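Deliverable D5.2: sample structural annotation.
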Amino acid sequence: MVRTETEGRPSEARSRLLRTAGQVFYAEGIHSVGVDRLVAEAQVTRATFYRHFPSKESLVLAYLNEADLAIRGQADAAVAAGLPAADTIRAISTSIAQHIRSAGFRGCAFLNAVAEYPDPEHPVHQAVLAHRQWFLDTVTELLTEVREQSAESAARHFVMLRDGAMAEGCLSDPELVCETFLHGVDGLLEAHAEPVRA
């Protein structure tokens, strides 16, 4: 029986296209990179491109899906470590800080993408919203384990801290940004853990 790509390993050409897209979309933006450039850098033919991705938009969605899976994997690994919820959030925050400190850091791939696709109905915009909702839900669930009251508010605060750090991380000293972000997360966790006084 012949295995299809969905049943077996993805083709090398598809992997190269996704890898190339991930690098150039993140470094230079999505709209500024055309199919010809992607085909040339991935060393595939246009026919091969369109066999794997019916349109550039479908490649953009696949690129965001790969980014989503990577972030989910980091969060899953932090949760799987079995630490208390506050320490799990600190572990997720540390992985965010490591990303900010990485070479070639250019901000959040999802915030970058949504800036290029402002129409709320566009599939790329919808993919960004879905990723962000998952992230907010994950943090909310962890903060509920710390203290159920006000967990949603604290989770929104955490996401805003993260968004700010991701934006500032490519504009100024990443070490200072990460130090400020991690200090902010500690303060948020301490404040959230405090019972509300009557």
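Annotation notes: The longest helix spans residues 56-80. Residues 1-7 have pLDDT under 50 and may be disordered.
The annotation will be released with the project's public dataset once the embargo ends.
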